[in-house]
Specification:
It is a single chain. Helix 4 runs antiparallel to helix 5. With 386 residues, the chain is an alpha/beta fold. Strands 1, 2, 3, 4, 5, 6 and 7 form a 7-stranded mixed β-sheet that branches. Helix content is 51%, strand content 14%.
Length: 386
């Protein structure tokens, strides 16, 4: 079936996940964030219903689906006002990488827990001085007998406090060329030398951001995921789902904001008619809806390509989807707040905080400028300036 026409199974999945989301909603997530807690109840319910591991192999307790299904789950929870950010990291990035490249032991150890939500894993790639340039990663991994020793720093790593382990991207020396190549390592939370400190964010979210230090962290050889010579392939196998899931996150947030604004515009009366009867109010909301729908189409295309095993095609589409969704989300939130006027900035309506939250999809996990670089170089064949 074409990825542009959603299957009956996908529509049914949207319906049941939306029903779960409605039981929790925006106020639940806002309260959890204010209290400094975690959305454990929603996470447990989503896990119990099989939604968290819908993309993971059935033999390890997953749903046997793909990123297409997982992105639907996140989008619908987001549209209900209660997206789970750790879905981007734990089942989508880490679960995918381990399912595709992990050893049998790693799969047995991690996938059942990631699938049923009883275990979570964080993902550590970003560094203070590297930004989006994975070639500048300075976290190094060196061999010491059968062990690996990791040293370095990471920043803006989500959910490390609740994660049982973090999938760390380091660089190891190639024995043949002497050059550094990316490798992925599973680092359990309580490993000696593995430190974390919370970053004080203006953005209020249940999932905290951390700076990590790896001070001579000793790991057994079994901590290496996959083949140390295929690190770059494995890395992008995790980054494409991350972009697709970020797009789904952004589309869900945009849909949530837009729905609040539409409800308000239908009932708010200043003159004779509800304000939604005026084109100056109605047209920008219609435009926001169109942009969100277009972003969703590209997200579906990216997920379909990825699930079909087309990593190159998925890379291009995932970047475009993430770009389109980030832009559509910011504009939808902005227009929704504007539609409500002063009420858009009150806690009662719960839209004001989305002004900050919506920027995340433009910035993370890769900035819109770097996506434009990717498209100009990879798609259009234009020369690089760097």
């Amino acid at each position: 079936m074409s990825s542009t026409i959603e299957s009956a199974e996908h529509k049914a999945l949207r319906t049941v996940v939306a029903a779960l989301g409605q039981r929790y909603g925006r106020e639940y997530l806002a309260r959890v964030a204010r209290e400094g807690g975690h959305p454990d109840e929603l996470w447990a319910d989503a896990a119990k219903l099989g939604y968290l591991g819908v993309n993971l192999p059935e033999e390890y307790g997953g749903g046997g689906g793909g990123i297409a299904e997982l992105s639907i789950v996140l989008e619908e929870l987001g549209a209900a006002g209660c997206p789970l950010l750790m879905m981007v990291v734990s089942p989508a990035i880490c679960g995918t990488v381990i399912a595709r490249f992990g050893t049998d032991e790693q799969k047995r150890t991690w996938l059942p827990g990631l699938a049923d939500g009883s275990r979570t894993m964080a993902f550590g790639i970003t560094e203070p001085d590297a930004g989006s340039n994975s070639h500048r990663i300075t976290t190094t991994a060196r061999r010491d007998g059968d062990d690996w020793i990791l040293t370095g720093r990471k920043v803006f790593i989500s959910g490390v406090d609740i994660a049982d382990a973090t999938l760390i991207v380091g660089r190891a020396e190639d024995a043949r060329t002497g050059r550094l190549k990316p490798c992925l390592f599973i680092v359990p939370r309580d490993t000696p030398g593995f430190g974390r400190s919370v970053i004080d964010m203006e953005l209020q979210a249940a999932e905290k951001q951390f700076e990590l230090t790896l001070d001579e962290v000793r790991l057994p050889s079994s901590a290496l995921v996959g083949d140390e010579d295929a690190g770059l392939l494995q890395l992008f196998a995790g980054l494409n789902p991350e972009r697709i899931m970020t797009a789904a996150f952004a589309i869900g947030m945009g849909r949530y904001a837009l729905a609040r604004a539409v409800d308000y515009a239908k009932t708010r009366q200043v003159w004779k008619e509800p304000i939604g009867a005026h084109q100056a109010v109605a047209h920008p909301l219609a435009q926001a809806h169109i942009e969100l729908e277009l972003a969703r189409l590209m997200t579906q295309k990216a997920a379909a390509l990825y699930d079909a095993g087309d990593d190159m095609g998925a890379g291009e589409a995932a970047n475009m989807a993430k770009y389109a969704a980030g832009e559509a989300c910011v504009r939808a939130v902005d227009q929704s707040v504007h539609t409500l006027g002063g009420n858009g900035l009150t806690r009662e309506y719960g839209l004001g905080s989305l002004i900050t939250a919506s920027r995340v999809a433009r910035i993370a996990p890769v900035s819109r400028e770097m996506i434009l670089n990717f498209v100009s170089h990879q798609t259009l064949g234009l020369p690089k300036s760097y």
